[in-house]
Specification:
By secondary structure, this protein is of the alpha+beta class. The protein contains 5 helices and 6 strands, in the order H-H-E-E-H-E-E-E-H-E-H. The protein has one domain.
Length: 160
């Protein structure tokens, strides 16, 4: 019987090791927006998004040991194995949503952009309205934004 216990412990230890490695990989590959997680409303939304896209729905099962990009606004999950460019994956999978409930204030509004935050073995893309984007920037968090392709091209071009 003790041999079975040892095998179960070994399997559990392997799963924990894989999860810790994936968590470290996510933080290494997406080191941005850690300070934004100090915002209480962002932190609470990230904790909620660890379980699922909303407070009543769980994410579909994800393989242990690799990073996943999760978009709560659309409920979509995209695997990001080692070597995947997270910024490119985020641009390619950015939900085609121009107005949604902001992941910080929960107000239905036009979405300014997404904050990607490494949180455990997930990189979670939070949709943020313009008011909250301004609040986060002026609070000194220095957010790094991800935009839907073409979303702010005109503003960037006009600034040239």
């Amino acid at each position: 019987m003790s041999g079975t216990h040892t095998e179960a412990e070994a399997r559990a230890t392997a799963v924990i090791d894989q999860s810790l490695a994936a968590s470290a990989d996510a933080e290494q590959r997406w080191p941005y927006n850690e300070s934004v997680q100090c915002d209480e409303r962002i932190e609470l939304r990230l904790l909620d998004a660890m379980i699922g896209p909303d407070s009543v729905t769980a994410w579909d099962p994800m393989p242990t040991g690799i990073v996943h990009l999760c978009w709560p606004v659309s409920g979509k999950v995209h695997p990001a194995p080692p070597g995947t460019d997270l910024a490119a994956l985020a641009r390619d999978t950015y939900p085609n949503i121009t107005e949604a409930s902001c992941d910080r204030c929960a107000v239905q509004a036009p979405i300014y952009g997404a904050l990607l935050c490494a949180f455990s073995a997930k990189v979670i893309g939070l949709s943020i309205c313009g008011t909250c984007a301004y609040d986060l920037a002026t609070a000194g968090y220095q957010p790094v934004w991800t935009f839907r392709p073409g979303q702010h091209d005109k503003e960037i071009h006009d600034a040239d």
